[in-house]
Write a structure and sequence with these properties.
By secondary structure, the protein is mainly alpha-helical. The chain has a single domain, classed as Multidrug efflux transporter AcrB transmembrane fold. The protein is built from three helices and no strands. Helix 1 packs across helix 3. The longest helix has 47 residues.
Length: 127
């Protein structure tokens, strides 16, 4: 049960990182840049904060993971879940989230073109 609390805490940190990254991409898009440029700029700008958050979480919780006392054994499952969850999800935040945003935009573009394609196929050709 305690490890689930750590998983929940890791989910909170990872979701926060993803939201901040997505928000930055949206803000850059509103300034007039293309989606791919916005994703690259957001990845460059937000890379350091995301990596530093993961590293400091790992380094800050490592002493609790390595603590040999009996009192620390109660918290170790939560600490291990939180620590490794944040570290392992950082690459997904930096790589997978921007890729999914670009793929999602491509899907939206595809579906927005379908009505015009169908309209061209249904309308009679001018001679």
């Amino acid at each position: 049960m305690i490890s689930y609390w750590g998983i929940g805490a890791a989910c909170g940190v990872v979701i926060n990182d993803n939201l901040v990254l997505a928000d930055y991409i949206i803000r850059v898009r509103k300034s007039g840049k293309h989606l791919l440029e916005a994703v690259i700029e957001a990845g460059v700008v937000r890379f350091r904060p995301i990596v530093i958050t993961s590293i400091t979480t790992f380094v800050g919780l490592t002493p609790i993971m390595l603590e040999p006392s009996v009192q620390a054994n109660f918290l170790k499952p939560a600490v291990i879940s939180l620590t490794w969850g944040v570290v392992l999800c950082a690459p997904f935040t930096l790589i997978l989230a921007p890729c999914l945003m670009v793929i999602g935009a491509d899907i939206v573009d595809l579906f927005s073109k379908i009505p015009s394609i169908l309209k061209k196929q249904v309308s009679p050709k001018a001679t």
